[in-house]
Amino acid sequence: MADARDAVEADVARRLLGVDLSVADAMLYAVKGGKGLRGFLALESARLHGIDADQALPAAVAIECVHAYSLVHDDLPCMDDDDLRRGQPTVHRKWDEATAVLAGDALQALAFEVLAEIRSRNTLQLVATLARAAGVRGMVGGQAMDIAAETAATPFAFDQIVELQKRKTGALIGWSAMVGPVLAGQDLLPLKAYGKWLGQAFQMADDILDVEGDAATLGKAVGKDASAGKATFVSLLGLDEARRRTAELSDWARAALDPYGNEADMLRDLARFVVSRKT
């Protein structure tokens, strides 16, 4: 994951070289310092299907740019109003709100510019599916549901939380898992199932960390959902049941990889990591 993250950061830095604007500095700042999970997943999914890293890197860069843009906007005062992200001041705190909005906009645009460079007969499918995953039927729609949950007359029910997180978190993780079979023109079902269960496990683990985690270790504020009275997997299920279901989702994700045999061991390790991580 660190190698994938470094490759993505280096590629974004190269593309912004010579752009003498503070918004470019903010874009690179927003991309740096994360886990690089989505970019790694895109590259490993590609490797699993015989696609070399050079061809798949634009997909990894694209998904990390979209993810970074979503965090920059998510942190804004009009949304979550956070001061800390990845252990550093959020973009609007380090610069200002206007720069943060523009940096997020530019990162989204850069994502599709980069993705369109992939030389494959299936590039258009990648572009279209990323647009859907990032848009109102995906991440943006999930964020809208999350905002609505803050003012809902009654807390969201379990099925509503599942749908919210399927869009807000799961859509981009699911897209990352599909990069390999899409580029290779191969069966989508195993990685589609893997991405679905991995995304749910990731979010449920996030909810657990929001209760049990340490802000200094996580690099972001904790306990905000509880203080806002928002329903989460933990508030609805309790910690013990949330832990059990998170482990179960990880098991399901790993089982989906059975058609790939030992070649998918790295993705199996990723499914273990998302439920055992501390950040």
Rg of Cα set: 18 Å
Q: In what order do the strands lie side by side in the largest sheet?
A: 1-2
Question: Would you tell me the structural class of the helices and strands?
Answer: mainly alpha
User: Termini distance?
Assistant: 14 Å
Tally of structural domains? 1
Tell me, briefly, the overall form: globular
CATH class: Mainly Alpha
Q: Kindly report the name of the CATH homologous superfamily.
A: Farnesyl Diphosphate Synthase
Q: Fraction of residues in helices?
A: over 70%
Poorly predicted parts: none
> Architecture, according to CATH?
Orthogonal Bundle
Strand content: under 5%
What sequence of helices (H) and strands (E) makes up the elements? HHHHEEHHHHHHHHHHH
Number of E strands = 2
**Given the structure, what is the number of helices?**
15
List keywords for this structure.
279 residues, mainly alpha, Farnesyl Diphosphate Synthase, two-stranded antiparallel ribbon, 15 helices, 1% strand
Offer a quick outline of the entry.
By secondary structure, this protein is mainly alpha-helical. It is built from 15 helices and 2 strands.
What features would you describe in this structure?
The protein has 279 residues and is mostly helical. It has a single domain, classed as Farnesyl Diphosphate Synthase (Orthogonal Bundle), CATH 1.10.600.10. It contains 15 helices and two strands. It has a two-stranded antiparallel sheet. A hairpin with a 2-residue loop joins strand 1 and strand 2. Helix 1 packs antiparallel against helix 2 and helix 2 crosses helix 6. The radius of gyration is 18 Å and the shape is globular.
